[in-house]
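Exam revision sheet. Question 4 asks you to relate a sequence to its structure. Input first:
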Amino acid sequence: MENQQLMVRASWLYHVEGLTQAQIGERMNLTRRRINELLAAALEQGVVRISFSSPLAENVELEARLCEHFGLQDAVVAPTPADPSRMHAVIGRASAVFLDRLIQVRKPRSIGVGWGATLHETVKQMTGANEPEMRVRSLMGGLTRGSEINTFEIVRSFAKVLNAKCHYFAAPIYAGSEEAHAVIMAQPVFQEFLREGSNVDLSFLSVGDVTGRSLQVRYGLPQQTDISELVAMGAVGDLLGRYLDAEGSPVHHPLNRQVISPDLIAYRGIPTRILASGGPHKRAILLAALRASLATAIVTDAESARFLLKGPGA
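Answer key, structure tokens:
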């Protein structure tokens, strides 16, 4: 009973009155070590329960659950914006903070990036660094139409903000046919570029959906491609331009044999693989990618995180 009273009193002074452990020890005539033991025991035995009133606390819990459920190294969950048009900016900001910290701590020698609005927002909000020995590589071909979210502009922007070396992949994301793809991939320069892309230390990509909101669906697919055919074959979205089914396996469509990017076996060899996407239209492909262990870390929004944890078969 005496020990219980000591725990309650020490906990009250610490958590409610805000005294330091040294001040509590002086008041209670106990050593600081003894006060530390009492506070730890109070938490362990449930005498004290700590709760957070901030909505961000739930996001931290979601991050831990995502890591445990899908075997991830890291997860970042941002609040879901009330205005859906702000999703890219919110995910981009969260990704920028995460990448800033990751680059500072791990000092990767090379980074592979994709393209899209989320990556565009991310690089806009990153903190400048000075990494002249780092290489930033595009991991996939790009749109043939000029755009600030194209792979060529994205890789240049990342290299600029990091003061790193820039390596473009000067090719379209899709060859016009399987035959044209075979001709392109027979060239040593493209073979080498894909090999080097697969050997980066860290990749940072977003996933694509199969709706009209997708820039790739609107601008990146070969003219003869009908997205409804991909959907009929089970496609829920794409990663690296490769259309995947709900289990994260490539669908059997000619388009997946025309894409100019590392195959998924080579991609899985990248030690740190970050996927950043959010919003209802991206949830099915995010879940597919996680089911197939195609990511080691994700950045998403809270509502999408809850879907991933409760989604069909999750």
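Marking note for examiners. The first strand starts at residue 74 and ends at 78.
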